[in-house]
Amino acid sequence: MKDLQSSLDRPALLSPLNFIDGEWQSALSGETFAVHNPATGEVIANVPDSQPVDARAATDAASRAFPGWREKLPKERAAILRKWYDAIVANGEDLARLISLEQGKPLAEGRGEVAYGASYVAWFAEEASRIYGDIIPQQQRGKRMTALKEPVGVVAAITPWNFPLAMIARKIAPALAAGCTVVAKPAEDTPLTALALLKLAQEAGVPAGVINIVTASREHAAPAVGDWLADERVRKISFTGSTAVGKYLARESAGTLKKLSMELGGNAPFIVFDDADIEAAVAGLMASKFRNGGQTCVCPNRVYVQSAIYDRFADVLSTRVAALKVAPATDEAAQIGPMINARAIDKIVRHVEDALAQGARALTGGKRLTDVGPNYFAPTVLADATADMLLFREETFGPVVPLFRFDTEADALKAANETPFGLAAYFYSQDVRRIDRVSRLLEAGIVGVNEGAISSEAAPFGGVKESGYGREGSRYGLDDYTTLKYVCQGGLA
Questions:
Q1: Catalytic residue among 263, 443, 457, 472
Q2: No. of H helices and E strands in the chain?
Q3: What is the mean pLDDT of each run of 10 residues along the chain (493 residues)?
Q4: Residue 159 and residue 105: Cα distance in Å, rounded?
Q5: pTM value?
Q6: Is 263 a catalytic residue?
Q7: Active site located where (predicted)?
Q8: How buried is residue 141: exposed, middle or buried, by Cβ count under 10 Å (0-12/13-18/19+)?
Q9: C-alpha span between 86 and 289 (Å, rounded)
């Protein structure tokens, strides 16, 4: 812990405790669990192992704070959010170091995540004053009908490990802008960044009880969150993570009919048509696939290349991938860091071995890099992938690019949509008719056309089918934290 604090310009930014009702505190049981550096396997901190009683204390605080927070003028909430944004930017280097240490991504990507997460706080600070309702055209004389947007209430935010700052900022910022209060649980692998973010929110003037955060181990996470699922005071769940866990949360929260936002698993296709700019397509694939070592929900998982350009595309791509530098985040030149833990590595190994056994060819990579550290896998390109392989059906979540061959546009669309998931999809083409046609026919909530970097605070982020529902970011994302009230006033004639 002291070693970790010594790596920060502001050691006080690290508060390895729960934050409930404006106070930093241990779990009531006194139990803790370890947070590891995935690059080395070393323990870097111990944080509270919370249980239902801690989660309930957080709900109590959020419920008490809700009436006062919702009554603040939108511009007052916006001013606090803006101060929070300024604090995030001012402490950006320390936050980037924390992200890289506990999550493993290269420091340059950690800095990018800080900027990305902060952009949501700035965006929703501005949107707080733009929560408009409607005056409904008069239907009867003497009556005025209006539709008003009001905060939904206490929000439970449950976030993943791959973007420990951006994902929690993307949920808390719109909740606060709308007038909601929050209880939150970050992923057990990466709680330190979220706790630091809350420290900055406290310094920015967020009142006690408006944001509360508890940490819990994998063993205790379900019981702790279960208390929120059963508590009728928690009116909304916002979750980013696997489809299996999302379905569990939906089932278990049904008893109180909570509002749900679910950003779940993906299996993104990336289609390269024979009229594409090959260099641009390779650059777009590199940007979208190898961000965070392939550990993002919108990473391309299946790359379809039209037969006429398949070999040329594979050659250009494999040359670029072979040149990627794999190293810990402490190496400023690192482009690919470690995977989050041993389970992640095991899944990648299983997918690659299955593909090779069924006839795929490794053009580059295809193996663990144990000489670098315990959780590293070489960036990999696999040729001759088929629909019989595990990596077609399951999201690999690692630096592995399987190349599938296709002949016609219809073949590509059928294969791309042949999945229960529908978060992101990408394609490259210079045919304007095809661009319009394929954009419409891809079954995904997000489509990148001749572009690999698709995320923005100004755009709605979310999926269809088993990739979930609800949207984050943009003005549409704010609607998920409000309810619509119809008011009919009579006697006006």
A1: 263
A2: 16, 22
A3: 74 94 97 96 96 98 98 98 98 96 95 98 97 94 96 98 97 98 98 97 98 97 97 98 96 97 96 98 97 96 98 98 94 94 96 97 96 95 97 95 98 97 98 98 98 95 97 96 97 89
A4: 17
A5: 0.95
A6: yes
A7: 263
A8: exposed
A9: 31
